[in-house]
Design a protein that fits this description.
The protein is mainly alpha-helical and about 45 residues long. It has one domain. It is about 90% helix and about 0% strand. The longest helix has 22 residues.
């Protein structure tokens, strides 16, 4: 993955999070963050 593609993907992800927070609030982002950290731990275990 080269730098321009990474920048576009990062911009899309951050933009999506901003729009989602503006429309729905930030309560569910805490839940999703905790689940994502659990997923990272699980993936690190299988590594």
């Amino acid at each position: 993955m080269n730098t321009p593609i990474a920048l576009v993907l990062a911009t899309l992800i951050v933009g999506g999070l901003v729009v989602d927070t503006m429309m729905n609030g930030s309560d569910h982002l805490i839940f999703l963050s905790k689940k994502f950290l659990d997923l990272l731990e699980w993936v690190a275990f299988w590594r």
